[in-house]
Write a structure and sequence with these properties.
With 378 residues, the chain is an alpha/beta fold. It has twelve helices and 19 strands. The protein folds into two domains: 3-216, Alpha-Beta Complex (Spore Coat Polysaccharide Biosynthesis Protein SpsA, Chain A), CATH 3.90.550.10; 219-377, 2-Layer Sandwich (60s Ribosomal Protein L30, Chain: A), CATH 3.30.1330.50. α5 (162-170) crosses α6. It starts with a strand and ends with a strand. Bound molecules: magnesium ion (MG). The site of magnesium ion has 5 residues, from β13 and α8.
């Protein structure tokens, strides 16, 4: 069904400690979650209502998406919604959803349920039953109970026909502004239907709500692998897994030739589909000549964080006859754990020989392979 939407993102968020709609949730600005959900569901246009002076933040947060534009909001939520409804272009019977950006975890199912109800009703809203018993109190003094019967928790998006909700707003005569559009439509005599809401569609109100919402984001585990090899040459020490080991040879390479960290960096990049180490630090660039491989690894970890993800564990295997790795293994694990900000038991460094076979066995070079497990928003 063709529909348009008003996304209300004009709040100053005093209770959440700042304008929460632009804060990151799972690596993505809060308002962007809803905009993406509405566009994915087929919204032909989304008018995003923002507060004064928030244009730059909106551009930063929503950039790269199509079929949206901003309009300035008003002092109260109802003023902002009306500004959005006025800005929408469409026929009188165009279905329109009004959604609060502070409810980021908007599922396609909820959108579909509201749109379906609007086909036969003047308005629709998602709502949840109240599970806890309700009490009335004055400060901390209990004064009575509230009958839970027939009481529901209202959510958004709320759906209407564009012309009808505009007329309903124009007809609002009460002194107090309405709490939502469903109330406006009902006051105008409209038939407003409730459909099943979604507990994940919680409204981010207090700072601690972000912690709960983070936990509600669907996540997936991704695995990446990496491999690297470098040739032995004349030298007095070798860098392996971020630790310098005295040795009668060194590994030859453009950077510090730390094959352990290179394989691990590639494993992390592989887990998040970000190419390989050469894409990010081209060996043709003189900037990386002799560079410590620490920064390659930290860069890969930063990319994981930027996607709202976290590294779960890593496992590196060094393949060589010499030097003996075991005496340095604990230092290597500690170094990688520090670079990736991981607990020690999430970092494994192992070593093996190839029983004198192949290029590692003949002492021509050292090889390394690595696995990384990463958790990111789905
Ligand atoms: Mg390398």
């Amino acid at each position: 069904m063709s529909f348009a939407a008003v996304l209300v993102a004009a709040g100053t968020g005093t209770r959440a400690g700042g304008a929460k709609q632009w804060r990151l949730l799972g690596g993505k600005p809060v308002a962007r979650w809803s905009l993406e959900a509405l566009l994915r569901a087929g919204a032909q246009e989304v008018v995003v209502v923002i507060g004064q002076g928030q244009e730059a933040e909106a551009d930063r947060a929503l950039g790269g998406l199509r079929n949206w534009r901003v309009v300035g909001g008003g002092a109260a939520r109802a003023d902002s919604v009306q500004a959005g409804l006025t800005a929408l272009v469409g026929p009188d019977d165009l279905p329109v959803l009004v959604h609060d950006a502070a409810r980021p975890l908007l599922s396609p199912d909820v959108i579909a349920r509201v749109l379906e109800a609007v086909e036969t009703a003047d308005g629709a809203l998602p709502a949840l039953p109240v599970a806890d018993s309700l009490r009335r109190a004055s400060r901390d003094r209990l004064e009575g109970s509230v009958d839970r019967d027939g009481v529901w928790r209202a959510q958004t998006p709320q759906g209407f026909r564009l012309g009808a909700i505009r007329r309903a707003y124009a007809a609002w005569r009460q002194d107090e502004p309405p709490t939502d559009e469903a109330e406006v439509m009902r006051a105008a005599g409209g038939d407003v239907r409730m459909v099943a809401g979604d507990p994940r569609l919680m409204k981010l109100t207090y700072p601690e709500d972000f912690t709960l919402a983070e936990a509600l984001i669907p996540r997936r585990i991704r695995v990446g692998s990496g491999f690297d090899a470098h040739r032995w040459g004349p030298g007095g020490s070798v860098w392996l897994c971020g630790v310098e080991i005295p040795h009668d040879q060194t590994l030859i390479g453009h950077s510090d030739a730390d094959a352990g960290l290179h394989a691990l960096t590639d494993a992390i990049l592989g887990a998040i589909g970000e190419g390989d180490i050469g894409d990010h630090f081209p060996p043709t660039d003189p900037k990386w000549k002799g560079a410590s491989s620490d920064r390659f690894l930290v860069h890969a970890a930063d990319l994981v964080r930027a996607k709202g993800g976290r590294i779960v564990n890593v496992d590196v295997t060094l393949i060589c006859e010499r030097p003996k790795v075991k005496p340095h293994r604990q230092a290597m694990r500690e170094r990688i754990a520090a670079l990736l900000d991981l607990p020690l038991d999430a970092v494994s460094v192992k070593a093996t020989t190839t029983e004198a076979m192949g290029f590692t066995g003949r002492g021509e070079g050292l090889a390394s392979q690595a696995l990384a497990t990463v958790e990111t928003p789905a």
